[in-house]
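Supplementary Note 3. Input sequence used for the single-chain structure prediction.
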Amino acid sequence: MVAAETFPDILSAHLIVAKLRLSGPGERAYPPPPKLVHTQIAYSEANPLKNIFVGNLGFNTSEDALRQLFAPFGPVNRVKIMMDDYTGKSRGFGFVEMANAGDGEKAITALNGTLLDERALNVNEARPKKEPGSFRDRDSRNRSRGGRRW
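The predicted structure, written as discrete structure tokens, is reproduced below.
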């Protein structure tokens, strides 16, 4: 066994941590957490972005092919095809962000139901992402797993 005198720095650090954990009521056991700063990016109301959901994509459809499909309707800011974490293959849907809401509406109207890689696309305005702890998410989870009714 190693003598405690050979590691005085480690033991003193350990004792400081133990003292912080065992401090009495009304005393601060740990330093306060840093203040979180939330920044929100504000887009101008005159030219809002349009986020578009594209479903029923072929598993071999590339982001470039999707970008070329939407490009005739206006500038495309971003294209993202959702991939499965385990297999690395496409999940069959993605999102396209158009620079202009009017161009996005035109693209939705024109491309919904069109064929890409021999599959009819489902093109709609993307819904906002649900918060993980939201009431609807929790309620639907309980019903599907046979949870309590009341």
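The first helix runs from residue 8 to 21. The radius of gyration is 26 Å.
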